[in-house]
Write a structure and sequence with these properties.
The structure holds two protein chains of two kinds. In chain A, 67% of the residues lie in helices and 3% in strands. In chain A, helix 2 (43-50) packs across helix 3. In chain A, 16% of the residues are buried. Chain A has a domain at 40-75. By secondary structure, chain A is mainly α. Chain B has one domain (2-74, 83-154): Orthogonal Bundle (Double Clp-N motif), CATH 1.10.1780. Chain B has helices at residues 7-22, 30-39, 43-50, 55-71, 93-109, 116-124, 130-137, 142-154; strands at 27-28, 75-76, 90-91. Classes of the chains: A mainly alpha, B mainly alpha.
């Protein structure tokens, strides 16, 4: 990933970039939470790193990681 | 809300959320409904296909739109891999808007059923946003496509 935030000339492009960045952030979160949990991180550690509650990150990601067979640490 | 939908339109409302989930998107948006329409084989889907918009072509245009939008602020990203979400995502603003507008279009025209053509017209009504940008990238004129659908699918122009 390469980032060099600059303002596009046309606001339509800038606003479309906002939409694309939101999606990218969601997908990056899904990928990185999974990577951390596969590496043996705990939910509280991942939550702390993301600046969200343990409940929030667990509610959002636990089901898919369990379905994918990722071994999850309890604490 | 879906009791006046035709069978094909119900499939679109069913497939849209699943397509969103497969793409790893956290909400169902208009582009997922458009992909779901292109997956059908009814009159509206055939108009899309004739314009070069089968499901794969729309998906490719959406990827190109994302890349171009990110590039506008100097961001490039490889596609990310992660285990898919289990829960089906909820309907987001643009998809809700499209379904509501499809209903209004059908009412205004005096059509008893809401078909995929009405949903397509509602999606194509948006001048801005992801779908309109993706169609522009695919070289498809939004208004010409809407006119095609109006005349050959929904009935009266």
């Amino acid at each position: 990933m390469m980032i060099d935030l600059s303002s596009p000339e046309d606001p339509a492009d800038g606003l479309a970039a906002v939409v694309a960045l939101r999606r990218l952030a969601e997908q990056l979160e899904a990928a990185e939470v999974e990577r951390a949990m596969r590496a043996g991180w705990s939910w509280p550690e991942v939550a702390e790193a993301l600046g969200v509650t343990r409940q929030a990150v667990h509610k959002k990601h636990a089901k898919r990681l369990i379905a994918a067979g990722v071994e999850l640490r309890r604490r | 809300m879906f009791n006046r939908f035709t069978q094909d339109a119900r499939w679109v409302a069913h497939d849209g959320p699943r397509i969103a989930r497969e793409l790893g998107d956290s909400s169902v948006e208009a582009e997922h409904l458009l992909l779901a329409i292109a997956r059908r084989d009814d009159a509206a889907a055939r108009v899309l296909h004739a314009a070069g918009l089968d499901e794969d072509a729309i998906a490719a245009a959406l990827v190109a739109e994302t890349e171009r939008s990110l590039a506008a602020v100097g961001v490039s990203a490889d596609s990310l891999t992660f285990s898919p979400f289990v829960e089906t995502p909820r309907f987001g603003r643009s998809a809700k808007w499209a379904l509501e507008l499809a209903l209004r279009i059908a009412l205004e025209r005096g059509d008893k059923r809401i078909g995929t053509g009405h949903v397509a017209l509602a999606i194509l009504d948006a001048k801005r946003g992801t779908v309109s940008r993706a169609l522009a990238i695919a070289g498809v004129d939004r208004e010409t496509l809407a006119t095609e659908i109006r005349s050959s699918v929904v009935g009266r122009p």
